[in-house]
Design a protein that fits this description.
Elements lengths: L1 E6 L5 E5 L4 H11 L5 E5 L5 H12 L3 E5 L2 E5 L7 E2 L1 H6 L6 H9 L1 E5 L12 H9 L3 E5 L2 E5 L8 E3 L5 H12 L4 E5 L5 H12 L3 E3 L5 E5 L8 E3 L4 H14 L2 E5 L10 H6 L3 E5 L2 E5 L10 E2 L11 H8 L5 E5 L10 H6 L3 E5 L2 E5 L8 E3 L3 H13 L3 E5 L1 H5 L5 H6 L4 E6 L1
The structure holds uridine-diphosphate-N-acetylglucosamine (UD1).
Uridine-diphosphate-N-acetylglucosamine binds next to α1, α5 and α6.
Length: 419
């Protein structure tokens, strides 16, 4: 088992190049299943989830290869239409392969993703949308058997909630379906825009991606292309929080401020100076941090649930009382008990977390229980007095490409140990 060992109280200072976006890369890799030609995805982060997506592609009969932050995929032949259970378990977001495999093969078999570390993760909206597009679904012993006896066809679909995964699955299934699909109340996350742009590069006809109405006109075939994955906005937010909690100064390269319009003002309220220019975000946190107005996590363009834990870590040291309301996932405060063990003063009740800023955090042995919560513990360790050990690094590795190297290069005392 691997752990990160951090000796805290070092101000971070320097430049970090932000990795490509995990959530975009995973949807794009699923999208490769639809392409008859070769795809080269650049700026693909080296993450366990990305490698799992490559393994799924290979199991489906495609050829995928990861090298130098690129994934090369040849989906000329997709021979299989079943995603084995071990791979579904490895990466829950593999549900996005459902729409893609259905689009390419007209049938798909995969196991139900079930609950996970953020609480129950239902896929009712994904399934009901696909049914409206002509898919028949049978669930047997946790395995979803999906087929389209008369082919996939376009449909007008209205989502009860702008689900990211459901929007992606519909876009993927609709790209090669017969006729036009319209998604009302679609998710507007930047990763949806990236997926639409990628599919259009491959010959799809999609418009409105990034707005709440997405229109997909099915085409006969998709070809390959070269495409650069967008920068990871949550990783940018994490490094901003790292600067904030250590009173440091960071210049983030390959960072897109326009995707962080709900996040940057929170750091400014904390008293940080933030300048954005070209593809860079500069943050200076030399002044003591202050509490902020209530943060409510919401679908994009609201404050992202994925940035909740890392911003909370910074707020543990902000003078005054801050409140967070987590509206997206029911079980997303599992990092709180561990932060409290490090000296933070946080109380939660249901969706609400109340954070009283403290003067000092103290190093402790803590355990990550999900990806972003794990990152929050690393940030707390960077600011804490003494030594912090963060166990279960495997969660953090799902979303951060060598987090310790990035942090070490800007002055953190952090290393990985195997125990
Ligand atoms: C994606 C992101 C995840 C992010 C989340 C919200 C990926 C791989 N993951 O997850 O990092 O935290 O968006 O921005 O891109 N829901 C239903 N029924 C459904 C689908 C969703 O009830 O059929 C509920 C979920 O339980 C959750 C909410 O809708 O409460 C949002 O989920 P969704 O937007 O679908 O998130 P994911 O696509 O799973």
């Amino acid at each position: 088992m691997q752990k990160l060992v951090i000796r805290g109280e070092k101000r971070l200072n320097g430049e970090i190049t932000v990795q490509g976006a995990k959530n975009s890369a995973l949807a794009l890799l699923a999208g490769c299943t639809l392409c008859s030609g070769e795809v080269l995805l650049k700026n693909c982060p080296a993450l366990s989830d990305v490698f799992a997506a490559c393994r799924i592609l290979n199991r489906l009969g495609c050829k995928s290869r990861y090298y130098d932050n690129c994934v090369q995929v040849n989906a000329g032949a997709v021979s299989e239409c079943a995603v084995p259970e071990d791979l579904m378990r490895e990466m829950r977001s593999s549900i996005v392969f459902l729409g893609a495999v259905l689009g390419r093969k007209g049938q798909c078999e995969l196991s139900y993703p079930g609950g996970c570390e953020l609480g129950p993760r239902p896929i009712d909206m994904h399934l009901s949308a696909l049914e409206q597009m002509g898919v028949r679904i049978n669930e047997e012993y946790g395995v979803l058997c999906c087929e389209c006896p008369y082919g996939l066809h376009g449909a007008k679909i209205s989502l009860g909630f702008p689900s990211v995964g459901a929007t992606e699955n519909i876009m993927l299934a609709a790209a090669l379906a017969k006729g036009e699909t319209v998604i009302h109340n679609a998710a507007r996350e930047p990763e949806i825009t990236d997926l639409g742009n990628f599919l259009n590069c491959c010959g799809a006809r999609i418009s409105g991606h990034g707005t709440s109405t997405v229109v997909i006109s099915g085409v006969e075939k998709l070809h390959g292309c070269e495409y650069e994955v967008m920068p990871d906005r949550i990783v940018s937010a994490t490094f901003m929080a790292a600067a904030a909690i250590t009173g440091g100064e960071l210049d983030l390269r390959n960072a897109r401020a326009c995707d962080l319009e709900a996040v940057i003002p929170v750091f400014e309220q904390m008293g940080c100076q933030v300048f954005t220019y070209d593809a860079r975000i500069y943050i200076n946190a030399k002044r003591p941090l202050k509490a902020v107005r209530t943060i409510r996590t919401l679908p994009y363009p609201g404050f992202p649930t994925d940035a909740q834990a890392v911003v909370m870590a910074a707020l543990t040291k902000a003078k005054g009382t801050s409140v967070i309301i987590e509206n997206i996932f029911s079980s997303r405060y599992r990092h709180v008990d561990e932060l409290v063990r490090m000296g933070a003063d946080i109380k939660t009740e249901g969706k609400v977390a109340v954070i009283e800023g403290v003067k000092k955090l103290y190093g402790a042995r803590v355990r990550a229980s999900d990806l972003r919560g794990g990152a929050a513990l690393v940030l707390a360790g960077l600011a804490a007095q003494g030594e912090t050990e963060v166990e279960k690094v495997c969660y953090i590795d799902r979303g951060y490409d060598n987090i310790e190297k990035c942090l070490r290069e800007v002055g953190a005392d952090i290393c990985r140990k195997t125990s």
